[in-house]
# Entry
Amino acid sequence: MTRQSKKSIDRFVIWTGSLMFLVSIIIYWIGMNFIREEVFTHYFNPKEHIIVSQNQDTREIYSWKDLNGEVYTPEDSHVRNFTWGTTMLLLFVMGITFFVHSTVVGYYTRIVLHRETMPRHGYMPGV
# Structure
């Protein structure tokens, strides 16, 4: 591998890594909004819930209710499992972006190495 090819691959790795980082942040943000709105609907959302009881000193919320009048507490299964859901989402996004990044870098490396080993047409030594 030539020095120029190594530089090209290194730049590509940094560029795609940065791009994958930004894409993973966007996917995680979209996934968090989806999980909060559609999957774990009992988790406290100030737009949809009203506080029923709260510690006035620490501002810790003990219970809240939705527009239908159902009261939820931190012991609710949706609330308890919210952290597991966000952890699974994070691991999923990390796994997918790692797989995509390594696949794209491997493909680009094969292209660069193939270009190096291709015979140059019209090349005549000493002319």
User: Anything to note?
Assistant: Residues 1-40+83-116 form one domain. The chain has a mean pLDDT of 90. The helical segments are 3-39, 77-80, 82-117. Residues 13 and 105 are 6 Å apart (CA to CA).
